[in-house]
Amino acid sequence: MLVNLQTIIGMAEKGGFCVPAFNVYNMESVIGVLHAAEEARAPVIMQVYPRLMKEETGYFLSPVILAAAARATVPVCFHLDHGPSELETTRSLCYGATGIMLDGSTLPFEENIALTKRVADTCRYLDVQVEGELGHVGTTKDDTMDEFTTPEDAKRFVEETGVCCLAVAVGTAHGRYKKPPKLDIERIKAIRAATGGAALVLHGGSGVPDEEIKKAVAEGIRKMNFATDLCYSFLDTCKEVVNDPQRPVAIDTFMKKPIEAVKSFCISKIKLVGADGRAD
Ligand code: 13P
């Protein structure tokens, strides 16, 4: 069933686990995530990068996500990932998104607060709540990590914006890591304490060692994003199928193995963050 962001984050908070958020790009990745969530009986978030919402992909992909959520017997949230401005957040709401991220993390602190609050206030009219970001989570191509989120700033940000969950910079980055990251677990703990238990979000989940993820979840990470490794699971399997002399030509048959690969990848992450069996 389709649920909003606050419902699915509320489930994670109540149960003391983390909801995995998988970036989806096409119908096949949506089906892979759906099958994984059903088999593992897990609540999941299907999220979409804003560039897809700007292009025609969003127009076609959104109904596919909504159809998957309507068919699902587990809670599914349709979320905009890294919305940079009100243009993308408004369009995503029109397309039926039930969760919105407003990423003002590259703005000066006061501007990030003001923009995030404005979007959170608007979304609330539609019963949709917002994920904010404080302390910029960059990419693995960046040479240096930006400043980590401080507990004091996080407290002010959460109080003044009214976000439902907060993405924090504690050692992760988007993409494939050159060497496995080490997370600042003490900082996660301190941010949780300073914010009175705000639900925290970890971006850049691909390639983070399992033990680090488990520790982060134990300290209050309630949503964790996976994109790059989901893409590789799909694309590497496409390559295998292409190289098979018996490969099917019909596209739907060709796609069966890549869909299976996405499903297996998602099941492994659902279990890792403790979301399996939490749907019921
Ligand atoms: P990865 O691509 O590193 O898994 O990060 C995904 C993410 O955080 C999406 O916002």
Your description of this structure?
- By secondary structure, this protein is an alpha/beta fold.
- Helices cover about 50% and strands about 15% of the residues.
- Strands 1-2-3-4-5-6-7-8 form an eight-stranded parallel barrel, surrounded by nine helices.
- The protein has twelve helices and eight strands.
- The protein has helices at about 5-15, 25-40, 50-55, 55-70, 85-95, 110-125, 150-160, 185-195, 210-220, 230-245, 250-255, 255-270, and strands at about 20-25, 45-50, 75-85, 100, 130-135, 165-170, 200, 220-225.
- The N and C termini lie close together (about 10 Å).
- The mean pLDDT is about 95.
- The structure holds 1,3-dihydroxyacetonephosphate.
- 1,3-dihydroxyacetonephosphate (13P) binds near residues 174, 204, 206 and 226.
Blueprint (SSEs and pairs):
Blueprint: H1 5-15, E1 19-23, H2 27-40, E2 44-48, H3 50-54, H4 56-71, E3 76-83, H5 86-94, E4 99-102, H6 109-125, E5 130-134, H7 151-161, E6 165-168, H8 185-194, E7 200-202, H9 210-218, E8 221-226, H10 228-243, H11 251-254, H12 256-272
Parallel strand pairs: 1-2, 1-8, 2-3, 3-4, 4-5, 5-6, 6-7, 7-8
Helix pairs in contact: 2-4, 2-12, 6-7, 7-8, 10-12
The chain binds 1,3-dihydroxyacetonephosphate.
The site of 1,3-dihydroxyacetonephosphate (13P) has 14 residues, from strand 3, strand 8 and helix 10.
How do the strands of the widest beta sheet line up side by side? 1-2-3-4-5-6-7-8
Radius of gyration: 18 Å
Largest sheet: 8 strands, parallel, barrel
Give the helix proportion (percent range).
40-55%
Question: Which cofactor or ligand species appear?
Answer: 1,3-dihydroxyacetonephosphate
Distance between the termini: 12 Å
Helical stretch tally: 12
What is the element string, with H for helices and E for strands?
Answer: HEHEHHEHEHEHEHEHEHHH
Q: Tell me the overall shape.
A: globular
Poorly predicted ranges: none
Which structural category fits the helices and strands?
Answer: alpha/beta
DSSP summary, beta strand count:
8
Beta content comes to: 5-15%
The overall pLDDT, averaged over residues, is: 97
